[in-house]
Amino acid sequence: METRLLKCREINQAFLNRWPIDSVRAMTLEQYVDTGNQDTFCQWIETQTIKLGSIKGQFSNKFGIYKRSNPNERPETLASDEVYTWIPRYGDDRNAAFRNVKNEIIQIINFAVAGDFSSIDSIRTNHIMKWKIAFLYSSERLVPVFKNDVLKAIAEYQGMDIHKKETSELQHFILSNKPANQNIYQYAAELFRQFGKEEDENPSYYLIGSKYGENAHEDMFPLMDQFSVVCTGFSWGTDLSYLYREKDAEIVRELKALGEESKSVNALKQFLQLKPGDIIAVKSTGNPKAGKPFLEIIAYAVVVERDGKTYWHETENFGHCINVEFIKTGLNKTFSVGGYSRTVHTISDAETIDLLFNDYKSGESSGVRNRIKTRRRNRSAATSRNTSGQKRKGSDPYVTSGKHNLIQQYFKEHLEEIYGKDNVLLEENNVDIKVIQPDSVTFYEVKPFAWAEDCIRAALGQLMAYTHFDTTNSNKKIRVVGPYPPDKDELGFIRFLKDTLSLDFDYEHFDV
Fold first, then answer.
1. What angle do CA 459, 324, 385 make, to 5 degrees?
2. Is the pLDDT of residue 512 over 80?
3. CA-CA distance, 479 to 466, in Å (whole number)?
4. What is the mean pLDDT of residues 376-404?
5. What is the longest distance spanned by two Cα atoms in the chain?
6. pLDDT tens for residues 407-426?
7. Distance between CA atoms of 18 and 40, rounded to whole angstroms?
8. Of 9, 195, 317, 389, which one is least surrounded by beta carbons within 10 A?
């Protein structure tokens, strides 16, 4: 059984151990929701079980009633007392409101345990909140995707007439299409990758410091360069993955609730917005020199996703990390500009972007790609290894984005022109594209990475699984599709695979 499946089930079981139905019935308002308490029912639903599906991104009124982090801020459209705020329909005071919120939750749990999901549709609890609760008590009889617009997009794509369909009907239909060789979490992750993520194609630009310590005495850049990350040490011991790419207001509210100082809040709210494709200038200092404005940039990098993550947290060396590929290091570029002494700065002014980033303004440009390729091929061997269990930070792949779906769609249309529409299948059993011929079936896996080698590394295991689980007797062929042609070294790698694999294998370059 897959490690990820085991971990997800461990998290679900930990939740059920902490919050069995009897504990929910006996739950007090303080046990339901609080500030700074990670053991409340709401914290378990939203944060402790985030790996089982996220409900982040909405305001705290999704809980029905919540404790305000700032008692003086009372939303005008909601009911409030000196401590709590709640949806007015739940009652005239905090006790009545909580009693009615809890009654709805108990109904949801009872229906989920019984598998009576259609009865949950009419319960008025916030949509994503009630379906997250239902999933946790459902024994994996629901798909852990909770946004209704995403569920509708999935069901419609899979062939359902979604007009006037309730969420329970969408869930039932989507679950019925789960491939037998995927567990529920793999299935949900694949669906959310296709339908749930809203990618911003345009890069943002950031200036990030490389020193730790009150007096900036600890140079972190050697470690950044070694492990291909940028990092910040604020709020050192708290994993903020649940806040990654959330709205600024949500991040600020959470950080203030954790007691973070303003400089920590300012740095982290920007750091947590870094996404694949963004360009970073790493500075050694932005403090004035001899009374005059001064800025020194020592490296440029592009943000990447690696092993399915962009942000990660650890407390041995870094604190909070964002995966990058360094474009250029060993620089000492100085500028007579001021105002850049903080840890993180978002650069949005076009003139300043031109000044500071110049040739490094796009992670997809050929110049940037060639610089990164040179660094990857010529990276020096290490003289020793850290044996204390530190995470591996590999150097695969480059920038991922919504480009995958564009390549997939246009490449499908290209194949339809060659083989006919009836012979080209999209996402059947989660295969990106499959082409059926009288004597063969060809499996295509699309990857959007900047090198053929990275595309092949990421796709090959999936393609092997597709062929293994395919029950037809046809001759099977596997193809990796990427946006860039292979270079000389990669052509040698492709020839090696062709000679080694028993399957008919090739790499195809197709860009949009």
1. 85
2. no
3. 12
4. 46
5. 77
6. 888 889 889 888 888 999 99
7. 10
8. 389
